[in-house]
Write a structure and sequence with these properties.
This protein has 1177 residues and is an alpha+beta fold. It has 17 helices and 56 strands. InterPro entries: Beta-gal/glucu_dom_sf, Beta-mannosidase-like_N2, EBDG/EBM, Galactose-bd-like_sf, GH, Glyco_hydro_2_AS, Ig-like_fold, Ig-like_GH2.
């Protein structure tokens, strides 16, 4: 048994069961008292093992009750909530947990026989006339029997229908003369009907259920000084929680936390039964036949009119005496109290109204709720059939003493050019006891040194008195922070937190605890905190939004993030991989798109702390999207969600949940839309900046919402980050909300370098293609999905790609844009099969996204302040806009971005053919030079040049020299270009960039025959294994005969010790990092000698487009003939899709976790290396 004596939190993430509510005849009280479902590995139907955290669809998939919705066209075989109704995806979730308290004067818990309450509940879905209502009837069988009937509504346009009825059940008949009625709301109008049919007559579809609960005994007394809370960090959408027979309603809202004090509900023996009935969103919407952005706003209005007409006709017909021939009266008011059988006319109109209501209810938008909006489908994802219903985030129990700590807010302020800093903290203390609590509030701030040694920089204690049964807001330090005292949390030259590419990350561990006199430690809290200051204003010269961290402007190169998985299978392991992937691409910002999630603390944790250089800034949007809120034909939800107070409650709770994360940089009201006026005004006020965080260049529009208070900044809801009302407002796109983001399709690579390509300073969304590797296609689609698009040539010479139905369902973006862009895959020759198509697609992916980022960077600070690519990954098996697929295998675009977004970078301007050097850092780049070499398909180097030493100022792009080879008389139609930025003093390479190019008017078809080249390679492998974790260094050398240009080279053909792909900037070499990796493995098994594999070849030339993959030792063809995916995923590569000129050598670091019992093998493939050489581990 787990006693609750120790202060702390325990996560409840195992042992959950689930069942469809319509298949469970027991009530929540019965499930958590006398008749719980039997636990075990094979629970009896209808119960099944549940995915918690997760969704209903995730649970059904886990139990193989539905096909994988992301495979092929399987999603079309899964019942949509619009067709089945909300009850179909209303599920029970059940678990048990051990927790007992040592009780003092604990009350005697009631027995089930003491008293019985019969419940009957009817849920009325929301419609234009009738807002969400519930009919709640209870019959008390205690000593003084009575019946209480309550009608509850969520508010809004409330027209509440209440029915007086006969009670046919025996116990109800005995109580018929002793009942009471109460109304907790004022409806716009009500009408009452009486019917002998099952005790109820109700026009909309009825979903009723009965439950029993025990209510006797005094359960309000104290259970000693310990308290236990049950915490739900996210439920979609509403729920009823039952614990040991006690019921709590968990209100609506996907992005709100629920905390229930269960101290006096815990069973004395420590065995606790928990059941949660989870209801889907109120407005799940209907999916139009043609799909759509955010669902069904184009069809709902017509059906709404049908509904209103049908419902308006009934009372008019009745009141005009239309019911007279069926036993009614001339007086329509008698409709409220009559006791005859239901007239035939009423039944007819009832059925008509039911049909209209049923259609109309399901054609309302998901945007009416405060929930994820992508779930009705978008142009990049199929509909999610359950709309993400479920207990989708962490469930935990927390044990505290009499006083607990709630939502501390940490803020750092800086003075004297960041030399002096103060840490501020405001928190809430709650005293749950009936006596005054004398407390010692302690705060400890420590930082980790090398070798797992922690340095405690501050340890302070503050005496506080908290009155009984009260809340107290307390601020540390307790006096004005402008006056230094010993109790202040003062830091001299603190280690600052920097985003990716700007410097070293430093985080401090802040631990707060409260000790209560006579009890001891009552509660504790800790969080990793980064000292940093983020400012954001509109740049005067470009009109784009500019971000500064610790006073340094940052050129933003990042991406749009939807969410990790469309079924909300959100694990720490997957989050860790996701964030590392983005950091490996050298991205410095992620935008959490408004149609997705308010991302979870685990997501932000890895953005804060991952690795030695991987820190990503995040902009977080709230749940408004133009496609769902305010656009469409006709306009959908012009006033946003129905419940504005609920939206603001969820927004404020989200801010409290996330505000202490160093990576969080910006709050935004919505995607391509602003929130409704009242919500927007409230958010501007709630998220106003503290005066110490107002930039000197803040615009007038910002200053209107700034507070002039001199109070402690930690007393603000946030106060440290800017709030922008929408993703195309105030420095994003054209700043006025017009559709000036995008485009989202294939482009000519040189277009990105042209001044005319994009007009505005910061583009929040620009996207393109994203076909994954062939293995992913085979793993996620049946054989009929392996056929490649049909290439239809038009009269004007352009090619239209026509995909198969499965690719079309998975949102394939063509690699051509008829009338604008010629087919970019066809440039390499017509694809023969799936493997050929996908390999050529990777060539295009690499070129497309490298050019996108290099083109934007070419205008750094002169025209642009940033760009975010739409989008970086897919939460399902989509075929567009991704740098790694849903199985977490990279596309070549991943490495194109990784190359282009280096902090120090050498690049070719594809429009001007000038070579440029990019320095995004705060330091001057001096005494460097550029080596330029051109290689033809025969392995010769007809053009070679090394520049003079150059100096590149900080945060500048410098044009160096024109690359004149294409203008030479004997220039080859297809050639390779290798650029190296290096230090002549030690030949250290700072940036390496490899291009394949063709002359104007030519194509890459000559590369087709280049595939037949047999290039000699030498592969060295060094392996280190610790359990299932593998770390390898694979060194590949091109053994081709060197050309005459070799004698002229200023830079070595090998870059020893550098396998990072980012190259040494003088701070820490990857060689030293590799040594740290080996030393950290301790007892890891390491190969004594390098393993060497030689690939013989008689040809000379570039080893082109080489890429590693890691596999198990099995066959790709299963026994039943189906495709068997042998890849081990995810895998982290320091570089991939790389090319080596004759004599060059590259070291690639590879890390992964292998399945237990497997024998991993590393496979090397390439454009002209097709023998699939493997290294067994």
């Amino acid at each position: 048994m787990a006693a609750a004596g120790a202060v702390g939190k325990r996560v409840l993430d195992t042992g959950w069961l689930a069942a469809r509510s319509t298949e469970v005849t027991l009530t929540g009280v019965q499930l958590t008292t006398t008749q719980p479902p039997a636990a075990g590995p094979d629970p009896a139907a209808p119960w099944m093992s549940a995915a918690v955290p997760g969704t209903v669809l995730g649970t059904l998939l886990k139990n193989k009750l539905i096909p994988d919705p992301f495979y092929g066209l399987n999603n079309e075989a899964i019942v949509d909530i619009a067709d089945a109704g909300r009850e179909y995806y209303t599920f029970w979730f059940f678990t048990t947990f051990q927790c007992a308290l040592v009780r003092r004067n604990a009350p005697v818990l009631p027995t089930f026989a003491d008293r019985v309450v019969l419940e009957r509940r009817i849920h009325v879905p929301v419609c234009p006339v009738l807002d969400s209502a519930q009919l709640y009837c209870s019959v008390d069988c205690g000593q003084k029997p009575f019946m209480k009937v309550v009608l509850q509504s969520s508010g809004g346009i409330a027209a509440c229908i209440f029915f007086l009825f006969k009670l046919s059940a025996l116990v109800w008949e005995k109580l018929y003369d002793n009942w009471a009625i109460s109304f907790p709301l004022t409806p716009r109008f009500c009408f009452f009907l009486l019917s002998p049919i099952q005790g109820f007559f109700f026009l909309p579809p009825i979903h009723g259920r009965a439950s029993f609960c025990s209510t006797s005994g005094d359960i309000s007394g104290e259970s000693g000084n310990q308290h236990v809370t049950l915490n739900f960090r996210g439920i979609n959408y509403s729920a009823e929680m039952y614990l040991n027979g006690h019921k709590e309603v968990l209100p609506k809202g996907m992005f709100r936390r629920h905390t229930i004090d269960i101290t006096d509900i815990l069973n004395p023996d420590g065995n606790n039964l928990l059941a949660v009935l989870v209801h889907p969103p109120d407005h799940p919407g209907r999916i139009p036949p043609q799909g759509g952005q955010g669902g069904d706003h184009e069809v709902s209005q017509t059906l709404n009119k049908m509904y209103i007409i049908a419902y308006a006709f009934f009372p008019l017909w009745w009141c005009s005496g239309g019911n007279k021939s069926y036993g009614g009266t001339q007086n329509g008011l008698h409709m409220f109290f009559f006791q005859t059988h239901v007239p035939l006319g009423i039944l007819l109109i009832k059925e008509i109204a039911n049909v209209c209501l049923h259609i109309s209810l399901w054609t309302f938008q998901i945007g009416k709720d405060v929930a994820t909006q992508y779930v009705e489908g978008w142009d990049w994802i199929c509909p999610i059939r359950d709309r993400n219903t479920g207990i989708w985030d962490e469930v935990s129990i927390s044990t505290t003493g009499p006083v607990n700590i709630t939502d501390p807010h940490l803020v750092s302020t800086f003075h004297d050019d960041f030399k002096r800093s103060y840490l501020h903290c405001t928190l809430q203390l709650e005293n749950k006891s009936s006596w005054i609590a004398d407390c010692a509030l302690k705060i400890q701030v420590s930082t980790e040194l090398e070798g797992n040694i922690c340095l405690v920089e501050h340890l302070q204690s503050y005496s506080i008195t908290v009155p009984a049964h009260s809340y107290l807001q307390y601020t540390i330090p307790p006096v004005s922070f402008l006056i230094f005292q010993a109790t202040h949390l003062f830091f001299y030259k603190p280690n600052l937190w920097w985003p990716n590419g700007m410097g070293k990350q430093s985080l401090y561990n802040v631990e707060i605890s409260v000790d209560v006199k006579g009890f001891g430690e009552s509660d504790s809290w800790n969080h990793y905190f980064g000292f940093r200051k983020i400012e954001s204003t509109i740049d005067d010269s470009t009109g784009g939004r500019i971000f500064k961290v610790n006073g340094e402007p940052i050129f933003i190169r990042g991406g749009n993030w939807i969410l990790s998985d469309g079924l909300l299978r959100l694990t720490k392991e997957r989050y860790m991989t996701d964030i590392k992937f983005h950091a490996d691409m050298n991205f410095n910002m992620l935008r959490c798109w408004g149609g997705g999630l308010a991302e979870r603390p685990d997501f932000y944790h890895f953005c804060d702390v991952y690795g030695w250089k991987h820190f990503v800034q995040v902009w977080q949007e709230f749940w408004i999207t133009g496609d769902v809120d305010g656009r469409g034909i006709p306009v959908s939800n012009p006033d946003g969600p129905l419940d504005h107070d609920l939206f603001l409650l969820c927004a404020r709770d989200t801010v409290k949940l996330l505000r202490n994360h160093a990576s969080l940089a910006l709050w935004v009201g919505g995607n391509e839309q602003v929130p409704p006026v009242d919500i927007n005004k409230a958010l501007k006020n709630d998220l106003k900046l503290h005066p110490m965080f107002v930039s000197k260049h803040a615009s007038n529009s910002q200053e209107k919402y700034l507070s002039e208070e001199s109070t402690d900044p930690s007393k603000y809801l946030d106060g440290t980050r800017v709030y922008v009302q929408g993703s195309m407002w105030d420095g994003f796109a054209n700043g006025k909300g017009n559709f000036t983001d995008g485009p989202y399709e294939i482009q000519y690579p040189e277009s990105f370098f042209k001044d005319s390509f994009y007009k505005y300073g910061f583009n929040p969304e620009v996207g393109s293609v994203g076909v994954p590797v062939a293995a992913t296609i085979r793993a996620t689609m049946p054989p009929e999905g392996w056929s490649i698009p049909i290439f239809k040539k038009r009269i004007d010479g352009y090619i239209k790609e026509v995909p198969n139905p499965i690719w079309d369902y998975h949102k394939f973006i063509p690699y051509s844009k008829p009338g604008k862009v010629h087919d970019q895959i066809e440039l390499y020759g017509h694809p023969k099969d799936l493997d050929d198509f996908c390999e050529k697609a990777q060539l295009v992916n690499y070129v497309q996204y490298r050019a996108l980022l290099e083109g934007w960077t070419s205008f750094m600070w002169t025209k642009f302040t940033g760009v975010l690519i739409w989008k970086t990954q897919n939460p399902w098996t989509g075929l567009r806009g991704q740098f790694y697929d849903h199985l977490q295998d990279h596309t070549a675009g991943f490495y194109g971005c990784r190359c282009a977004a280096e902090p120090i970078h050498v690049q070719l301007n594809l429009a001007s053919y000038f070579i440029e050097v990019v320095n995004t850092t705060a330091d001057e780049l001096a005494d460097v030079a550029v080596e330029i070499s051109v290689w033809d398909l025969d392995g010769a180097s007809p053009y070679y040049k090394v520049t003079e030493k150059i100096v590149v100022p900080p945060k500048k792009v410098k044009q160096i020299i024109e690359m004149k080879y294409p203008k030479m008389k004997d220039a080859k139609p297809v050639y390779f270009l290798l650029l190296k930025l290096f230090r002549p003093s030690d030949n250290g390479i700072l940036s390496r960039n490899f291009y394949w190019l063709h002359l104007p008017g030519q194509d890459y078809k000559l590369l087709e025959q280049y595939q037949q080249k047999n290039i000699p390679l030498k592969i060295y492998s060094e392996v280190s294994v610790s359990g299932t974790k593998h770390k390898l260094r694979m060194t590949v050398e091109n053994k081709s005969k060197t050309s005459v240009a070799e004698s002229r080279r200023s830079v070595p053909t090998t870059d020893p010790g550098d396998a990072s792909g980012s190259h040494n900037t003088g701070k820490e070499t990857t060689g030293s990092l590799w040594r740290k990796i080996h030393s950290s493995l301790g007892g890891a098994r390491s190969s004594d000698n390098l393993r060497t594999l030689e690939v013989n070849g008689a040809d000379s030339g570039v080893a082109f487009f080489l890429h590693f993959s890691v596999h198990t030792s099995g066959s790709s063809t299963a026994k039943d003939g189906r495709y068997n995916d042998t890849r081990i995923l995810p895998v982290h590569y320091s570089d991939n899709y790389f090319s080596l000129t004759p004599g060059e050598k590259a070291a690639i670091d590879i890390s992964f976790e292998a399945p237990p019992g497997s024998s991993p093998r590393v496979v090397l493939r390439g454009w002209n290396h097709n023998l699939d050489h493997a290294v067994m581990i």
